[in-house]
Design brief:
Layout (H helix, E strand, L loop, with lengths): L2 H16 L1 H19 L6 E4 L6 H10 L4 E6 L2 H14 L4 E5 L12 E7 L8 H11 E12 L6 H12 L21 H8 L3 E14 L2 H11 L1 H8 L3 H14 L10 E13 L1
Parallel strand pairs: 1-2, 1-4, 2-3, 4-5
Antiparallel strand pairs: 5-7, 6-7
Helix pairs in contact: 1-4, 1-8, 2-3, 6-10
Length: about 280
């Protein structure tokens, strides 16, 4: 993770923590798939890479208890602090918190039984290095499970917002070759990466989710709190531009807005699992 990217996620940590309930409600199906795919067993060691505020790994913690260990890691210390607070709330004791970059995992070779990484590898400048490191720290036969976003047209919850920012000159067109949300969306990309990094028994699937809110303005505030890109774009926007983006996005999301004003915007995550 670059210094710029790390700083962006440090700034986003407070918003992710404040919006934990909404994010968990929308994204838990993905986390559940990842945890089930690595088949955690009591006594095992599970590594959650790029864990953010930790919710995915915490699902595994109870399955490996009481003698198993969860290692929750992230490159942004602010995210780890939020994860620590959440673990305290949940009473999870079999967890260690480590500030760690996915491209150079500070753990011994063959020291963990499973690795989960929800929407992390796709953001890295060198995802292949991170996956090779993942395979290194996995014991023979250990499992990795990852998530990455499907193509933009499968994720209007974010692509419609990006289109609105682009229309008002508040964002640049993304480079499809650069790290980012959709870097793994190309057909076959995830399988190719996993096989090239020495993994076997590769499985790739998709999980459909929805981001919901009681009203559009609630959805807007959720996005502002959890999207570094939106926050950065609106920081340099004029009041008129900000209002225009807000109103334009509301129009774009009308097709997913119910008669009572509630919003349910679809998304799709690719998920994959493989053996070391």
């Amino acid at each position: 993770m670059s210094l710029e990217s790390r700083e962006r996620w440090v700034k986003a940590a407070a918003g992710w923590e404040a919006r934990r309930a909404e994010q968990r409600r929308a994204t838990e199906p993905v986390s559940q798939w990842l945890v089930q795919a690595v088949e955690p067993q009591p006594g095992q060691t599970v590594l959650d890479l790029a864990a953010g505020i930790g919710d995915t790994g915490f699902l595994a913690a109870e399955l490996i208890a009481p003698t198993g260990k969860l290692i929750t890691s992230d490159g942004a210390e602010a995210m780890l602090e939020a994860a620590r607070r959440r673990a305290d709330e949940l009473g999870i004791e079999n967890v260690q918190f480590r500030a760690m970059e996915a491209e150079w995992i500070d753990l011994p070779t063959a020291s963990v039984d499973a690795v989960v990484c929800r929407w992390g590898y796709m953001l890295l400048a060198d995802p292949e290095a991170a996956l090779r490191e993942t395979r290194r720290v996995l014991r023979p036969g250990g499992r990795v499970a990852l998530a990455a976003w499907d193509a933009p047209d499968r994720n209007p919850w974010v692509s419609e917002l990006r289109a609105e920012l682009l229309a008002h000159g508040l964002a640049a067109a993304p480079d499809p070759q650069a790290p980012g949300m959709f870097a793994f969306a190309r057909d076959g990309r995830i399988e190719e990466l996993l096989l090239d990094c020495g993994f076997a028994d590769v499985e790739v699937a998709a999980v459909d989710i929805a981001f919901t809110a009681a009203a559009f303005d609630d959805f807007w505030e959720q996005q502002f709190d959890t999207s570094p890109a939106l926050k950065e774009a609106l920081a340099v926007a004029t009041p008129e531009q900000r209002d225009a983006v807000h109103d334009g996005l509301e129009r774009r999301l009308e097709r997913w807005t119910a008669a009572d004003g509630s919003v349910a915007v679809p998304g799709r995550s690719l998920v994959a699992a493989a053996s070391a």
